[in-house]
């Protein structure tokens, strides 16, 4: 018996691992566990030594964490720099959609993608938001503006301590940029052509862009 706030007593049962389990509930849980294992098992193989680091993964020894030098110092992770996990996902999105360009916001990534056999459960932990894939036809002006917006936070004084998830992981497009006098400038943008070469992004042309619905 244990006293409550009013001073009276009530029965209390300690719930720990010694408490008996309900056989019916346990059986149903095991059935669901089996169904989840079937759905969340291995879907592919990633041939890397270690893992592709996601933004929230800070475990020592992880592989291929993208880094960049900013005015406030060096910063790493998919929120502020090109990262291998971002390259993988952006390339997969562009390949699946058949688009000219894929843009994936860095804030989509939350955990690392392990090397070796990759399970669907790991992909869901890395990309937990289940956004749908969408494809747009945009002008070169709009695509350039999207690229500039994705880079814009890097020039902020708090780019390292307060990174924003709008930094873009790219496929099919290459950008060069620099920061001068506290302002970021997009120096050059090139789009991958059908033959694999690079052509300057032109404001007068249109491009198909694939991204998530967020």
Percent in strands: 25-35%
Individual helix count: 4
The major beta sheet can be summarized as: 4 strands, mixed
Gyration radius, in Å: 24 Å
* Strand arrangement across the biggest beta sheet: 8-13-6-9
Q: Termini separation (Å)?
A: 53 Å
| Tally of DSSP β-strands | 13
- Class inferred from helices and paired strands: alpha+beta
Proportion of helical residues: 10-25%
What is the residue-mean pLDDT, rounded to a whole number? 88
Reading the helices and strands in chain order gives: EEHEEEHEEHEHEEEEE
Gross geometry: elongated
What does this structure look like?
The structure is a single chain. The protein is of the alpha+beta class and 214 residues long. Helices cover 23% and strands 35% of the residues. Strands 8-13-6-9 form a four-stranded mixed beta sheet, sandwiched between helices. About 3% of the residues have low confidence.
């Amino acid at each position: 018996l244990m006293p409550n706030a009013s001073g009276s007593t009530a029965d209390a049962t300690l719930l720990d691992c010694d408490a008996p389990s309900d056989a019916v509930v346990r059986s149903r849980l095991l059935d669901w566990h089996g169904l989840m294992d079937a759905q969340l098992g291995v879907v592919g193989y990633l041939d890397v030594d270690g893992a592709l680091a996601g933004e929230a993964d800070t475990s020592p020894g992880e592989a291929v964490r993208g880094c960049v030098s900013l005015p406030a110092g060096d910063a790493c992770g998919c929120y502020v720099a090109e990262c291998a996990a971002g390259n993988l996902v952006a390339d997969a999105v562009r390949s699946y959609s058949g688009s000219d360009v894929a843009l994936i916001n860095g804030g989509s990534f939350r955990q690392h993608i392990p090397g070796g056999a990759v399970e669907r459960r790991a992909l869901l932990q890395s990309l937990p938001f289940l956004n749908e894939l969408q494809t747009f036809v945009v002008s070169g002006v709009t695509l350039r503006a999207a690229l500039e917006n994705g880079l814009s936070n890097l020039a902020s004084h708090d780019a390292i301590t307060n990174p924003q998830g709008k930094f873009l992981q790219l496929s099919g497009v290459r950008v060069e940029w620099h920061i001068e006098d506290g302002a970021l400038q997009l120096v050059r943008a090139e789009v991958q052509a059908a033959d694999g070469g690079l052509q300057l992004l032109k404001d007068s042309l249109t491009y198909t862009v694939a991204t998530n619905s967020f």
